Fold this sequence. Notes:
The structure holds two protein chains of two kinds.
Chain A: E1 11-13, H1 26-35, H2 39-51, E2 56-60, H3 65-74, H4 76-79, E3 83-88, H5 91-110, H6 121-127, H7 131-143, E4 153-156, H8 158-167, H9 171-184, E5 187-192, H10 195-205, E6 211-215, H11 227-235, E7 242-246, H12 256-264, E8 271-274, H13 279-292
Parallel strand pairs in A: 1-8, 2-3, 3-4, 4-5, 5-6, 6-7, 7-8
Helix pairs in contact in A: 6-7, 7-9, 12-13
Chain B: E1 2-7, H1 11-22, E2 26-32, H2 36-45, E3 49-51, H3 54-61, E4 65-68, H4 75-84, E5 88-91, H5 99-112, E6 116-118, H6 126-136, E7 143-151, H7 173-188, E8 192-201, E9 211-218, E10 223-229, E11 239-246, E12 249-253, E13 257-262, E14 274-279, H8 280-283, H9 294-308, H10 318-334
Parallel strand pairs in B: 1-2, 1-4, 2-3, 4-5, 5-6, 7-10
Antiparallel strand pairs in B: 7-11, 8-9, 9-10, 11-12, 12-13, 13-14
Helix pairs in contact in B: 4-5, 5-10, 7-10
Amino acid sequence: MTNNIVKMDKIIFGDNQFFAVNHLSDEKSRAQAIRFKENSAIIEVLNQARELGVNTFMCTTYDRIGDICNYMRDNPKEFGEFNIFPCMPYAHKYANAVTDLGILGALKAYMPGNALSVATKGGMAFLQKDYTAMMELLVDSEMKMFKGIKTPVIFLQNVLVDLIIGLGMQEVFLAFAKYVKKRYDAQPGFITMNMCKMVDICEEIGIENPIICASINKIGFRVSGSVEDYENYLTNPDKKFRPIAMQVLAAGALKPKEAIEYIGKFSKIESVLFGASSKGHIQENIKLIEANVLGASFK
Amino acid sequence: MIKASIVGLGKMGLSHCSILNAHPEVDLVSVCDSSSFLLDVFNKYGKQKTYSDYKKMILETNPDCIVVSTPTKFHAEMVLYALDKGINVFCEKPLSIKLGDSIKMVDIAEKKGLVTHVGYHNRFVGTFIEMKRLIEKGIIGELHHFNGSSHGPVVLKEKGSSWRSDSSEGGGCLFDYASHVLNLIHFILDKPVNARGTLLKNIFSHKVEDSVYSSIILANGLSGQLAVNWSDETYRKMTISIEIEGKKGKMVADATELKIYLKEPDSTENLVKGWNIKYITDLTPLVNFNLRGEEFSSQIDYFIDSVKGNRVENLASFKEALVTDTIIDVLNNDK
Lengths: 299, 335
């Protein structure tokens, strides 16, 4: 399965800042929740990023993203060529449902159609334990909000990717990859905290040159194994993959300049994912990435 | 290689399963659950033997250790069976729903000289470990108060029919959420031994409490407050915070940062007068495999090390967890 058709922007704008995800401070995350409680505040920042040259937004499939998508569809002049990289599933939604309803209950709650009726695709898949069909239905239900928007890469979230890596159930990745290609004409992407393991797994199951989004920073924040292992995979020409670097600032522990200069050492890194809430910060990041990271535009 | 089995493939069970399976020194040989739906996932994609009867699994696959991550009401029966067969046990929290059963589990494990571990993973979070170290060093002087709190969005509507909505099965905010805070207070400060003015409130649930408030007294005489609510949607996920006040300053820790306020600087710790912040990024050791947080891998690594070295006395043993079960019982009787 080859995976090198889609050209990715060097700069990918993330969404954590909009949804109160701050890995360094719960207090900051509450402040963000207040600042971005209205969707208009998110749209304002997205527009600023777009005006500064950002053309890809990578976001988790939160319910609120649906409203952002509506806005984008309503403003084709600005957002007609804009890309979204959806990341699914929104894990806490399912995790909280599992705590409340159990795994089967949560699946039933989120499976489109009636999970207990053979009259629906979901019901059939459920009763026949057709796990691939169930995965496909869940992907469809998460993708609904992006209808009419360009989604050239569709990501599995790290919680799911890492769970599957650990369980050793690699075939699931292949099924996902095939489905997003067939149904959405998209490339599969994988977010993970275990970059090296995922690179090896993709090679093993035949996902060629996979798009892998992982934490890459010199202090090893959210890195597993060791920083040396990561550097080795990022420089070894035999390890073929398309890395998107995330957590490059290590949740704010590193200064942007030193953080991005570090990323610039690895020519294999195609894109950098970053989030920021102010025009100034967005500008600063873009400038640094443009100056230091080779990225897709030079390949 | 350490041979491991697991019974109970819920949210924590699957997570443990993944981490154990990725551990280079562990051979995860078998899994057990009551749901054929889940077992078939393992039959189809996994390499482990699957069982719906845990006794059969233990007898047939003869593991060195077992993870018990079933609903709490099944813990005692399953753990006692495994201990009887000479197997080291990792049990999810809390230990059991009946104090008498928990005491029995501790006794038998001790008599048999087996390694035990309870899944209070916050004991493996860098910020709380650092807080404990600094408290023991006396950095904020004589202590006079603490606040332990936890909030999260578990039950947000009047519905739900899982085991977590039934206290006789080990459900409820006290067993599920408050246990973590009480366990951390024990870890960082001292054993909680008594409680006064306990309020267990129903917000959306009918059979169990959704929030817990109480004044907690520790063995060393220090007292403080507990405030826990699992029906709070202003939090994206479970959040725990421990605040400790002393004569020379104050400390506040959650899973992301440790804030230290000092009235006078401390050169031995390189801390200034006023606020100091230590981030989790500086306090987290690298793990070999990371699934949704280093602490989950760290605690499994710790357990496997305990099994390898027959470390019966350890910082997450049944004996440690019994303290939490005991104070839960006190809170339940104080309401």
